[in-house]
Amino acid sequence: MISENTRNSSKELHPYVVLLPTSIDDKIKYITTLFSTPVTIEILRLFEWNIELCQKDIIMKLSQHSNKTIIGSIKKLVSLNLLEEIEKEEYRGNRKVRVKCYKLTDVGKWYNILFKDISELSNNLIKEAVTNLSVMFMAKILPFSEHLKIGFTEFVNHVMSSAIKSAARSKKHSEYDLLVFGSLALDVYLKPSIMITSGGAGANVAALASNLGLKTGFVSRVPANVIGSYLLAELINEGVDVSLVELDQDLELPVCIILEPLEPTQIQCTCNPRADFKSLPVTYQINDEVVQASAVSRSIYLGEGICKTYLDLLGKIKLKDKILVFRPHKISLEYYFEECLPILNYSPILILNEEKEQILLRKGINVPGDLFKAGVEEVIVTKGSQGVVLYINGRDPRTYTPPKVNAVNTVGAGDAFSASLIYYLLKYFNIEEAVKKAVYLSAVSTTQLTSRKHLAEAKYVK
Question: How far apart, in whole angstroms, are the C-alpha atoms of residue 353 and residue 371?
Fold first, then answer.
């Protein structure tokens, strides 16, 4: 009879990978040889990775079995390429003798941990095991994929994308402080030396907000390839829920060339914002899962994206007591302002920079007067090292000057400001205090070299 404990433990399935020979006959021989006696398993369990055991030591540790049984089982493990035999010479008194020692092969290491409880394994061993498994698995399966006429790139991209999807689901938040809509990109710096970092304003905001302690989700479209998967893995590592990100094998990852990291910032991105919306690295359709996540989130950040898509979302959720921040891309204001204008009816906090303010002024839009008439109650205009101007409907404008810092990279400073602003608003600071603190953190962020900033410690400074 199977015990209740055994029945329950059988439901806990671990992702073990067991490597076997190619032919069916060899598979059967391999398995029946390995499991022909429990002694082979006992011997495998004795070993630690990268540590040798000599035959005499194995016999002493398994003294309940006969020498003949033990030696026969060792030979089986060597024949299966699970143990590697090493002959050594050692002195016993005045006599030099040959002794047989053994260590686990790469495949043997996997069978070794297969028969150990995970609690017996150190964190370092688990890390090494997972890394080695990935390398070994790919090395073994690639020739097999060629046999099935699956392209190398297609196979790797599919494996990486599937792994990211699985990891994203396992890290999914049940509720959100902030849901970020935006894009993910790769930033390439040419000065002061060539450097490649993660980028994308939306992704930066999401990572920063998570770094500050907010339960953050990211909604976007990302290429289903190795680079896209790697960048999403970075976000997962930052604590960002990316389960709502759509992976698209036909999408190209935006690459932004940064000519000068200090202001005035000069950035040239490969993405064409005026192209067909399906080719843009942002979400263009709102599914039920995104609507549900938006409905339960305490705040929503609408960054670079398609205004019609945002309007579709806003029409499906209730915004009462929810913080809504709208920070449109300059292309949206330049070419699609009429489509974006209805979003202002939902009274978001509107964040602009000087360039976006000038675009609106050229269109004959008075900032902030006409924006107030359209439904906005707070307009924020960031002006780089000159600080931030806060316009609140019915009040005089207020300018916040940043502290003097040793700035090395202003790319991402606006993202730092946006994430910090939302953080402090969620901590129940009023808009004036939130802007003041966000200006400070934004200035601090410019002392960091990369586009993706980290401000968890800085938030306690002021």
Answer: 15
Peptide bond into 261 cis (omega under 30): no
Question: What are the tokens at 169?
Answer: 């689901």
Shared-domain flag, residues 142 and 201: no
Beta bridge partners of 144: none
Q: Estimate the crossing angle of helix 152-170 against helix 226-237, to 10 degrees.
A: 20
Mean pLDDT, range 311-321, rounded to an integer = 95
Q: Which residues pair with 101 in a beta bridge?
A: 54, 86
Measured CA to CA in angstroms, residue 41 lies from 31, 59, 73, 76, 155 at distances of 12, 14, 9, 11, 34
In this predicted structure, the answer to whether residue 367 has a pLDDT above a threshold of 50 is yes
- In sequence order, what E strands does 327-441 have? 349-353, 378-382, 388-392, 398-400
Asked if residue 199 belongs to a domain, the reply is yes
| Range in 10-14, 98-102, 423-427 with the lowest mean pLDDT | 10-14
Per DSSP, the three-state class of 73 is helix
CA dihedral 293, 298, 302, 306 (to 10 degrees): 30
Residues 280 and 425 occupy one common structural domain: yes
Q: How many CB atoms lie within 10 A of CB 179?
A: 28
Q: Looking at residue 265, what DSSP letter applies?
A: P
Q: Which residues contact 209 (CB under 8 A, 6 or more apart)?
A: 177, 178, 180, 216, 419, 422, 423
213, HSE (Cβ side, Cα atoms, 13 Å): 9
Nearest to 350 by CA among 318, 394, 298, 389: 389
pTM of the predicted model as reported, rounded to 2 decimal places: 0.75
- Residue 399 CA to residue 382 CA, distance in Å, equals 10
The whole domain housing 233 covers 173-460
Residues 392 and 439 in one domain: yes
Edge-to-edge strand order for the sheet containing 185-189?
Answer: 195-199, 185-189, 255-260, 266-269
Whether the pLDDT of residue 8 is over 80: the answer is: no
pLDDT higher at 450 or 142: 450
Closest CA to 325 of 431, 187, 429, 166: 431
CATH number, domain of 253, equals: 3.40.1190.20
- What is d(CA 44, CA 114) in angstroms, rounded to the nearest whole number? 10
* Rounded distance between C-alpha atoms, residue 109 and residue 432, angstroms: 60
Q: Name which of 341, 323, 438 is nearest 380 in CA terms.
A: 438
Determine whether 93 is exposed, middle or buried from the number of CB atoms within 10 Å of its CB (0-12, 13-18, 19+).
exposed
- Residue 97, C-beta contacts closer than 8 angstroms, at least 6 positions apart: 89, 90, 91
